[in-house]
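All the exercises in this workshop are built on plain-text protein records. There is nothing in a record beyond a sequence line and a structure line. A learned vocabulary of local backbone shapes supplies the integers on the structure line. The question running through the whole workshop is how a given chain folds. Here is such a record, shown just as it appears in the course material:

***
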Amino acid sequence: MTRRPALCRDADAITADWMQQALAAGGAPGLPVIRDVAVEDLGSATNAFGRLLRCRLTTDGGSAAAPASVVVKLPTADPTAFRFARWLSMHERECRFYRRLAPQARIRTPTLLYGDVDEDTHRFVLVLEDLRALALEVPARLAGVESGRARRAVREIAGLHGQFWGGADHPALSGFPDVLGPKYARFLQIAYLVCLPAVLERFGDCFSDGTRRLVEALGPRIGAHFAAVAAGPRTFVHGDYRGENMFFRAGDDVGAGANAGPGAGGEAGDDFAVIDWQGCGLGAGLYDVAYFLGANVATDDRRRIEREALGEYHDIVCRLGAEGFTFDDCWRGYRRNMLGVLVPLVLGAGGLDLEDRRLRDLVRSGLGRTLAAVEDLDAGEFLPADGGFLTADYFVSTLSRCGYRMYEVARRLRRRAGGVARRQVR
């Protein structure tokens, strides 16, 4: 019987013996003896809930092993982010995806070589195929995903969405959470309102008067927005479909149009792949599309291609089984979901430590692009009305508003106290 290795807590625990056990437990055939593991930290600036490590493997004979390298994913060392991920069961979701859904999904993902999760402590480890071996590359972050690649990415996610369209009862989706359910909506509503003051302080110049009013009005109504979106078509969603989680073939014709690459809901190839499935679950497929095009594609490019990209998306999901779903439904759903994209953008812009200038610039660009898309598409049309008096949504909204105002007051008092202290030191 193959011995299951202990869960790693950090990079130091990834030894040759541990890797040997992990790959053997994952079923690697004809595995040679691994003599050495060289670990490279890939950073966590864009993956707040996990730590990625590239591990180069050397055999007992001194040559590179097969595979020559793997990527190991561990939980974040940040206690706040870890508690957030634990509350939302993010690690269990990702492990479940790689074990159960990835082998049959119509989208290329890294092959799972070994995975384990402790459902009590929520610690986990994933040993994944290193996509670098396929000569794939991640798009430039600040520049945004080029238009040809962007249309390819939309076609690829359409294949996955179409595969499970209306499939909430599909056996393969058992155990995946409803990401539009009340549990998530209420938690995100409170988190959004806590983060919003910091966003308006840090990035106030990104907002017009209209978008500032809109983001403030949305906070107490996030639960109602989720409920409205949930009334539409449902499918399996990635949940964090952004450029940093995509790999494209290096040197691909990024300027190509609709015929660039397969990406039409067929079999997954080796020239495009997606990672980071911690946010996956049952939801609105057009959220993935809106989040990707709104925050990850340069505004001028998005304006130029979004109609065609949505047309391609609509054609693919209909061909794969979406019935009674018109293009007008698709376009309206895209616009409605663009409003919801403000939620993760506010959480990231207000909740992340943005001391790193490059990360701050990345957050600013994503926020600015999304606000432009919200205005272009008149997504504010879908802002829900205030809920009725004495309803559950009314109480949650009221508590959220109170928390928001109290947080604003506390921040002002801290800044005032800091100013007094600095004057006293002088």
